[in-house]
Amino acid sequence: MGKPITHKQVLEKFGQKMQKTRQSKSVTQEELAAMLGMHRTYIGLIERGERNPTIRTLYKIAKALKVPASELLPF
User: Fold this and answer.
1) What is the DSSP letter of 62?
2) Taking CA atoms, which of 5, 42, 44, 69 is between 20 and 30 Å from 23?
3) What are the pLDDT digits (tens) for 7-61?
4) What predicted TM-score, i.e. pTM, was given to this entire model?
5) What is the crossing angle of helices 55-65 and 29-36, to 10°?
């Protein structure tokens, strides 16, 4: 069994997955932020693994990107 994943690693991996998904949909951080009613800097903080979004925010991000929330979680 390998080393357990740290909280920081989870946030970074989620952010990378979110960014990759956002970019594959040709959506900018600014556009996503507008869809969510959030500030662009918050989107950037999530994508860099510097913020821990709530489950509600995860759901809103998935809905805005038109993907199942489960698509953003597996690393």
Assistant:
1) H
2) 5
3) 999 999 999 999 999 999 999 999 999 999 999 999 999 999 999 999 999 999 9
4) 0.90
5) 120
